[in-house]
Amino acid sequence: MKETIKHHLTDALLMAYSAGTLPEAFSLTVAAHVSMCDECRARLGAFDSVGGALIEEGETAALSQGSLEDTLARIARAGPPEAPRRAPGRKGVLPAPIRDYVGGDLEAVHWRPVGMGVKQAILPTAQDASARLLYIPAGAAVPDHGHRGTELTLVLQGAFEDEVDHFGPGDIEVADEELDHTPVADIGQDCICLAATDAPLRFKGWMPRLAQPFLRI
Amino acid sequence: MSESYTVTRTKDSENAEWVACIARIRDNQDQAAFTRLFRHFAPRVKAFLIRSGADDTLAEECTQEVMVTLWRKAHLFDPTRASAATWIFTIARNRKIDAIRRVKRPEPEDLPWGPEQEPDQADVLVLQQESEHLGTAISALPEKQRVLIEKAYYGDLTHSEIAEETGLPLGTIKSRIRLALDRLRHAMK
């Protein structure tokens, strides 16, 4: 139980995740935050129960002839029930949904340097939004950037500070196009984040702009 | 007042019955229990899938798959964390994402404990009452607000559009959140 998380998911992100309408990269980020945050897990449960209420109070549609019999036949063919899933104990830095994309914990990440000591690893999600792990050395800054869409930044290790606030492990920053910010990692420890965006980032100044094609963001 | 009280009681005992049916499937592969659940929920799941953009054939196919999943995953249902309708919604939602939207939706890490074989009946009851309270509150919303919620859950609004909507009645879920949080904290002890 982490009681220290200060920055949570928005109602809009939780509702869209519950409805199943988010781009994959955002769903991954929401799932990762919920894995770390009991409050948002509880909020997500409430949004799911809104879906339950819609099913319960909603309309009905006529089933095909023999629908029940067909379903029972499928059950008979399907064999014994699935074995219960058991959550592997939290050992590493990455929550399970991210580990599934990386194929392991931090040691399995294929980092690529993007300059000034910052490294990233793009995760294989659908193209409508992108997700990448960011490694920011203690005290280093990610170039000043704005966004055209929404950018979610989830802290997995260490902490960073920008014009908005200080973000520690489990905290998520939800930035829209109004925000131009320069995240700076805390001095104490290298900072590892999951960042997801549904639009390319815009960097200010020529250096970062040159780097942008290499960043693939 | 007495009328709505009667309705609430009926819904509560209805859900208690669905919970018992799922337990009978889990413990005894009980086809009669499954048939009861099927007759109630399959037409609702199918309507939900049609409203989400499936044609009749695909909705029928997916509905049958949802009900097969209910059978196969009955041991994963935790009546202290979700009502039967909510659990079935999550199965239908996942099927919809796979079959209709064809995208991936990563799930949060499981909690380190699973459903108990004999859940505390008081916990089950509180959760069911809270779910029922929520259902009643949503039904009682002004038309415009209810339509907004429906549009969000049927997939007609993006998360940005949801964020821009100021008319969403999120107050209706506040007590449900408090309950879930208390339950999580209690279970972690």
Task: Please provide a brief summary of the model.
The complex is a heterodimer of chains A (about 220) and B (about 190). Helix content of chain A is about 35%, strand content about 20%. Chain A is α+β, with helices and mostly antiparallel strands.
Provide structural commentary.
- The complex is a heterodimer of chains A (217) and B (189).
- Helices cover 33% and strands 22% of the residues of chain A.
- Chain A has a six-stranded antiparallel sheet, sandwiched between helices. In chain A, strands 7-6-9 form a three-stranded antiparallel sheet, with no helix packed on it. In chain A, strands 4-11 form a two-stranded antiparallel ribbon.
- In chain A, helix 1 packs across helix 3 and helix 2 packs across helix 3.
- Chain B has one domain: RNA polymerase sigma factor, region 2, helix turn helix motif (Rna Polymerase Sigma Factor, Chain: A).
- In chain B, 71% of the residues lie in helices and 0% in strands.
- Chain B starts with a helix and ends with a helix.
- At the A-B interface, helix 1, helix 2, helix 3, helix 4 and helix 5 of A face helix 2, helix 3, helix 4, helix 5 and helix 6 of B.
